[in-house]
């Protein structure tokens, strides 16, 4: 695990993806989410999105994460809110579910930190025919110098930094028949701070990890025009 991901786990950040929970809510407004649906929050973190799905739509929600510290915080959230969310420890690269188990898979700033090809193939496998993937993912805009790209890969622990076209191609090759990007509603930028930056600090938090956050902010500021994100929607064929 990279120091950045270790920081997220120890700091217990509920909405690490760009836009946080307000962006998730905005995306879901245009989706037909029904209480009969089975939804997978792949890389659930502290369970912020999974809790919202369960509370708002009363559907069958499964929260999966590889980091046990995150799952412990998610479990406390679900218990506190008395939500029947299924908690599963596992990797997006080898999902511990049967084929065609879910109607919807959410991946919020998760897949880019994994073996992208494997994770996307797994999402397609566990989705039912006609099922959908919603992914908010780090996306390269323009060119990086060799040094810039190596810095980003090393800091975030990622193997590849994909462009929008490369993400779409990866999803098509993984078995999705239709892929599109969704425009962001700018109103989410004015959402309450606590919904975007929720923290659940671990008792054994090491102070030096604050330096990781500062380095993350430095990278974002320096590359803000070229290291962005996209909201992807991929559909699985009904066949």
UniProtKB/TrEMBL annotation:
<dbReference type="InterPro" id="IPR050447">
    <property type="entry name" value="Erg6_SMT_methyltransf"/>
</dbReference>
<dbReference type="InterPro" id="IPR029063">
    <property type="entry name" value="SAM-dependent_MTases_sf"/>
</dbReference>
<keyword id="KW-0949">S-adenosyl-L-methionine</keyword>
<keyword id="KW-0808">Transferase</keyword>
<dbReference type="InterPro" id="IPR013216">
    <property type="entry name" value="Methyltransf_11"/>
</dbReference>
<dbReference type="GO" id="GO:0032259">
    <property type="term" value="P:methylation"/>
</dbReference>
<dbReference type="GO" id="GO:0008757">
    <property type="term" value="F:S-adenosylmethionine-dependent methyltransferase activity"/>
</dbReference>
<dbReference type="Pfam" id="PF08241">
    <property type="entry name" value="Methyltransf_11"/>
</dbReference>
<dbReference type="InterPro" id="IPR023576">
    <property type="entry name" value="UbiE/COQ5_MeTrFase_CS"/>
</dbReference>
<keyword id="KW-0489">Methyltransferase</keyword>
<protein>
    <submittedName>
        <fullName>Class I SAM-dependent methyltransferase</fullName>
    </submittedName>
</protein>
<feature type="domain" description="Methyltransferase type 11">
    <location>
        <begin position="40"/>
        <end position="134"/>
    </location>
</feature>
């Amino acid at each position: 695990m990279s120091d950045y991901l270790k920081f997220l786990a120890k700091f217990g950040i509920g909405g690490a993806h760009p836009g946080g929970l307000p962006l998730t809510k905005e995306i879901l407004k245009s989706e037909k989410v029904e209480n009969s649906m089975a939804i997978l929050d792949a890389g659930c973190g502290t369970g912020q999105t999974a809790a919202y799905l369960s509370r708002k739509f009363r559907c069958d929600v499964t929260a999966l994460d590889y980091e046990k510290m995150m799952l412990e915080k998610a479990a406390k959230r679900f218990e506190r809110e008395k939500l029947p969310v299924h908690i599963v420890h596992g990797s997006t690269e080898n999902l511990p579910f049967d084929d065609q188990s879910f109607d919807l898979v959410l991946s919020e700033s998760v897949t880019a930190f994994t073996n992208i090809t494997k994770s996307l193939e797994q999402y397609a496998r566990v989705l039912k025919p006609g099922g959908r993937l919603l992914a908010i993912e780090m996306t390269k805009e323009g060119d990086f110098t060799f040094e810039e790209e190596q810095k980003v890969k090393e800091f975030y622990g990622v193997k590849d930094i994909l462009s929008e076209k490369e993400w779409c191609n990866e999803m098509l090759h993984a078995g999705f028949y239709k892929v599109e990007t969704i425009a962001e509603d700018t109103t989410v930028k004015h959402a309450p701070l606590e919904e975007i930056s929720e923290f659940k600090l671990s008792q054994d938090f090491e102070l030096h990890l604050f330096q990781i956050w500062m380095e993350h902010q430095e990278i974002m500021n320096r590359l803000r025009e070229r290291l962005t994100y996209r909201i992807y929607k991929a559909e699985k064929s009904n066949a």
